[in-house]
Amino acid sequence: MATSPFPPPPGTRVDGSAGVRRGRRLLATRQFGPGEVIGTFRNPLLALPVERGMRTTCNHCLRVAGDPAVTQLRACTGCKFVVYCSVACQRASWAAVHKHECKVFTRMASRTGKDWLPTPVRAVMQVMLLLKAGNAAATASFGDGGSLEGNVDAFKRDAEVWNDLKLQSMAAVVYGGILESEEMLERAERVICKIQTNAFNWLDADTGRAGVFLDPALAMVNHSCVPNAFIGFNGRTATLRTQQGIEPGDEIEISYIDYTLPRATRQEELRLYHFQCQCSRCKDELNVYQICAESPAIPLNTFSLQPDLQKLRLPPIEGPGMSSAEIDTIYKAWKAAAIPESQDPIQLAQARWKLCKPLADAKMWAVEPLPSTLLQLVNYYQDGHPKALALSCFLATECEPYKLVAPFMPWRIKGVMMIAKLLSGTAQITASGELAHACSHKGLIEILSKSDQVSMCEAMLRLVVHYAPLGESDDWEVLSEATTMLDDIESLEGRQNQSALLRAWAKYPQDPEGGAFFHSVVLKPVNELAALAIEIVDAELGNGKSLVRR
Ligand SMILES: C[S@@+](CC[C@H](N)C(=O)[O-])C[C@H]1O[C@@H](n2cnc3c(N)ncnc32)[C@H](O)[C@@H]1O
């Protein structure tokens, strides 16, 4: 029997049959620890930047202008459509797919003047060109009877979506210069359905990297809104990792969508995958607190900004909380709220905060769209504003640990890094005596004036440095930034004692002296700052009436 060009990673196997119930699925054949890599996927069948990034993203490794590893981006001398960061990337891309695509782009530009294609059209065109060239991996996955699920009949039943897919596949055939026969059009339609079902569209808002990624082995992983694994993208590489311990025989499941969104929104986003999610979050309409309370990842928080494991098990919800349907209604109104571009974005924040009030009244801080509203306000403040610091502390202690229970989840790491950066700004203005200028909030001034903000910042960086390789990779920009900041702090005079205590805590969070230092010098002020957050938001965005009942 021929071996698949895309075998499952060691320690896993594919079970089940295509098209039968949940189709095939990836099972663990050995134990995996929390945060462990299940598989690294370095040779995807499709990896392309989205159309708006075609001139600013390397067409092969998907690094962007601004990335330290990218010194220059040079256009392909043939088509001039795509750019590369190195000769090695240009050669690898040429061998993988661009030798077929380059002449198509050149012809297209000379005939139509067009110098870009919508991403889905380009993706289908690439596959069609690979199939035409007899590429073995493309044939095994996308050819007639190829391995990937396409849900073609289900797509055909959804008239609105199907019309779009038909137009896009037709465009791929036309622009690709592929014989416009009925057979080729149908083949292109099957290809686009398979891409829609199996590709990941990823976006890193911080770096601006965005792309489409498809690896047929990774495509065997099914969805759950209570996933035990997640995928990180780093350029052309995808890494599948556990969110919690996985036992032999367990199904490995990721979430195709943001699983912390309310139920109706999740179901709407899953519509294109054509199944009814039967996970406990969907079936039993559980909110983030209820899911968190049962999570096997809770004990991992011993080393985190929310080390009170009992609090994670017993959520702070007031009364019966809000129903799934009520939360869906709030979220829909929140998404629909918009203001003309010319107006101050604070007006949008005010409208959205008002919509979030029932959630705040029920103390459901971690339930979307409340955390997103707070984050928007953090981004609204200027860098280093003490109010942004209070809000970020609230997000990192009262919201994110419930939403994402494992402390190495990239979004949680980013939240801790945000606190570190804000502290480096507030520590400077405190030391230079400008704090009262920058902020009029008496409570904030009082906490910051008496806190050892440098130790607080160092503790955040130690968390980031510890978790970043687990959440993303050794060459994640967040990790290098944290390491540089940590080196700077370690080189400061007169901080040997504090640094030694924080090192001891980072090595062993229960270390009596290191742990006590972390709790009194870092966690206490973090919680004090967090305790001011809702009052600050309400004063800024609300009607002045405090919602804080703590
Ligand atoms: C990326 S594929 C996953 C592998 C797929 N089961 C197969 O056999 O090729 C996505 C498709 O798998 C199926 N699927 C994934 N998660 C599912 C779930 N939780 N319940 C039912 N079907 C699911 C749906 O058909 C979905 O469109």
UniProtKB/TrEMBL annotation:
<dbReference type="InterPro" id="IPR050869">
    <property type="entry name" value="H3K4_H4K5_MeTrfase"/>
</dbReference>
<feature type="domain" description="SET">
    <location>
        <begin position="10"/>
        <end position="257"/>
    </location>
</feature>
<dbReference type="GO" id="GO:0005634">
    <property type="term" value="C:nucleus"/>
</dbReference>
<protein>
    <recommendedName>
        <fullName>Suppressor of anucleate metulae protein B</fullName>
    </recommendedName>
</protein>
<dbReference type="InterPro" id="IPR002893">
    <property type="entry name" value="Znf_MYND"/>
</dbReference>
<dbReference type="InterPro" id="IPR001214">
    <property type="entry name" value="SET_dom"/>
</dbReference>
<dbReference type="Pfam" id="PF00856">
    <property type="entry name" value="SET"/>
</dbReference>
<dbReference type="GO" id="GO:0008270">
    <property type="term" value="F:zinc ion binding"/>
</dbReference>
<feature type="domain" description="MYND-type">
    <location>
        <begin position="58"/>
        <end position="102"/>
    </location>
</feature>
<keyword id="KW-0863">Zinc-finger</keyword>
<dbReference type="InterPro" id="IPR046341">
    <property type="entry name" value="SET_dom_sf"/>
</dbReference>
<keyword id="KW-0862">Zinc</keyword>
<dbReference type="Pfam" id="PF01753">
    <property type="entry name" value="zf-MYND"/>
</dbReference>
<keyword id="KW-0479">Metal-binding</keyword>
